[in-house]
Specification:
By secondary structure, the chain is an alpha/beta fold. It has 2 domains: about 210 residues, Glycogen Phosphorylase B (Rossmann fold, 3-Layer(aba) Sandwich), CATH 3.40.50.2000; about 180 residues, Glycogen Phosphorylase B (Rossmann fold, 3-Layer(aba) Sandwich), CATH 3.40.50.2000. The chain is built from 16 helices and 14 strands.
């Protein structure tokens, strides 16, 4: 029976990622959990107050032992700076993994939280060779497909090399968890189907409990119909087409509330300003997770989008579960599995990725039916409880670790 669990992740508290709850779940179940992560620097690109190269490198978070390894912060998020950030942490992970593999007590299970890049999944393989634990990979960013979709790599030879690398990585693990059913076919091309498990996202407890904790600062909310986005603002989120929809609705009593930040945030602000839409958009920046229910409560409808790329049609953003768990109606500009979930749950309206005209029409449709919004939100909440609850994921994960 497994007792000691080692988690590898690029991001951990105070950064807001699901792996925080994974660690807490396992610790609450009586397992001895250690997290290997980097010095926090996401998404702002700088190390937050209270942390540093010589501060809080070791700490306990909710009963979980956390070891923070040296890295160079991502800074402005330029390609060069990101590469330096990734490589610096990768090198730290390799050295530290060798150290614990040789000199520390054995961990029974290694759990890897893969967002991006795939480098995070390589140092644990070194630990496997040294100590032979059970190996679990939670793959939340399907490489190299994401890189191809974002035009980061175009060389067929490089794509083939990366595909071969990922296939080799998969084979080093005893179980590969995927967050979308649509990823199953791709995963089966890399590893035996018996190793693959569907492990969808869930919403953090704050969205279930709906405790309204106000954020710091005097945030103002406009009148009229309010659409809110909460989360990362990157290239994949297709804010270019969101801005196109804003343009179509410039003369409507529709306001856009943006909670979050990311690499595309400055471009979003510039595009909005150049379009003369500053009076229609309000920015609230990054805020603690605990304050999200307060922000959500100010919105009539939550929205999200992803680019019109094959890989994103197979992706279900975690924010969808948060929106549904909160009992908020949803508008999605997304193809594939996310689109299907919104329709199946009857929790709002979904249109295809890139179809900003239909997206704008959907907004007006919900705006004209405000009396139905509460029912749509309740539908989403019910669907979430049935298919995406945290309790179901905890049982699944503990069973996987203990078997």
């Amino acid at each position: 029976m497994a007792k000691r669990v080692l988690i590898y992740t690029n991001h951990f508290f105070p950064e807001n990622f699901k792996v925080n709850e994974i660690a807490s779940m396992l610790s609450e179940d009586g397992l001895d959990v250690t997290v290997i992560t980097g010095i926090p620097n996401y998404p702002e690109g700088k190390i937050p107050e209270g942390y540093g190269y010589f501060k809080r490198r070791k700490e306990f978070v909710d009963g979980v032992r956390v070891k923070r390894l040296w890295l160079i912060p991502r800074g402005s998020g330029s390609k060069l700076r990101l590469i330096i950030n990734y490589l610096s942490y990768f090198i730290s992970c390799l050295f530290y993994t060798f150290f614990i593999g040789v000199f520390k007590k054995k961990y029974d299970v290694v759990f890897v939280h893969h967002t991006s890049p795939i480098l995070i999944a390589i140092p644990p393989i070194l630990y496997k060779w040294l100590r032979k634990p059970k190996m679990i990979l939670w793959d939340l960013d399907m490489w190299p497909d994401t890189l191809v979709a974002l035009d980061i790599i175009k060389s067929k030879k490089l794509i083939a090399i990366l595909e071969g690398l990922v296939k080799w990585i998969y084979k080093q693990y005893d179980a590969v968890l995927i967050g979308s059913k649509s990823f199953a076919e791709k995963a089966k091309n890399r590893v035996d189907a018996s190793k693959i498990e569907y492990f969808p996202n869930w919403a953090e407890d704050v969205f279930i409990e709906k405790n309204s904790i106000k954020p710091e600062g005097n945030h103002q909310f406009p009148d009229g119909f309010k659409l809110m986005y909460a989360g990362n603002i990157g290239e994949a989120q297709d804010f270019g087409n969101i801005c196109n929809a804003m343009n179509l609705l410039r003369n409507e009593d529709v306001n856009w509330l943006i909670v979050g930040g990311g690499r595309w945030f400055n471009q979003l602000k510039e595009k909005v300003s150049n379009s003369g839409l500053d009076d229609k958009v309000t920015y609230y920046g990054n805020n603690p997770l605990a304050t999200m229910p307060y922000f959500f409560s100010q919105a009539d409808v939550m929205f999200f989008s992803l680019q019109d790329k094959e890989i994103f049609s197979k992706t279900v953003p975690a924010k969808l579960q948060a929106y549904m768990a909160s009992g908020k109606p949803v508008i999605g500009m997304i193809s594939g599995e996310g689109n299907d979930i919104i329709k199946e749950a009857s929790c709002g309206i979904s249109v295809l990725s890139g179809d900003y005209e239909s997206f704008a029409d959907a907004i007006l449709q919900l705006k004209s039916q405000k009396e139905n919004l509460q029912k749509l939100g309740e539908n989403g909440s019910d669907f979430y409880s049935k298919y995406f609850s945290k309790q179901a994921r905890k049982k699944q994960l503990v069973k996987l670790i203990q078997n």
